[in-house]
Amino acid sequence: EPEYRNGVSQQVTALRYETFTGTIDTPYFTLKTFKCGTGHVIFTRPDLVDKLNSILGIYYPFSIPQDNRQAA
């Protein structure tokens, strides 16, 4: 069985209670958290960015620029 006790959620919780700032690296993205409680997600796989844009385009069609929109 996969080990879930040290997943991204647990790492974010640990950062929140310890320092509020830090970086979490996964095979899919890098999450950088800041002291004010915000964070930046940097996707490391371009195919995931395309999939996310496709999903966002369905719910929020005008949030994606016209030349980057793809038909779902």
Characterization of the model:
The protein is of the alpha+beta class and 72 residues long. The model has no long low-confidence stretch (mean pLDDT 80). It has two helices and three strands, in the order H-E-E-E-H. The longest helix is centred in the last third of the chain and has 14 residues, at 46-59. It is elongated, with a radius of gyration of 15 Å. It is 35% helix and 19% strand. It has helices at 8-18, 46-59, and strands at 22-25, 29-33, 39-43. A hairpin with a 3-residue loop joins strand 1 and strand 2 (29-33). A three-stranded antiparallel sheet has the order 1-2-3. 0% of the residues are buried.
Short account of what is shown:
With 72 residues, this protein is of the alpha+beta class. It has two helices and three strands; from the N terminus they run αβββα.
